[in-house]
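[Target chain]
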Amino acid sequence: MLEPSIVASEDIVSKLAGMGFNFLHCQKAAINTSNVGVEEAMTWLLSHMDDPGIQIYVPAPADWGIAKCWLGW
């Protein structure tokens, strides 16, 4: 589960998106690797590209209350 206190690193997301990966998927990769780095995020992304929930929207921190309601958290 994504942690509400972690926000995707713009640097990691932009580098991965620049490689042609889906922007939303890049955000999830950065968040799920705690923004450690591009290589770690890419490894996570390549390992989870076929996950059923990969297309689910990542809410901005201000939207976490709404997301918790939508996702049942």
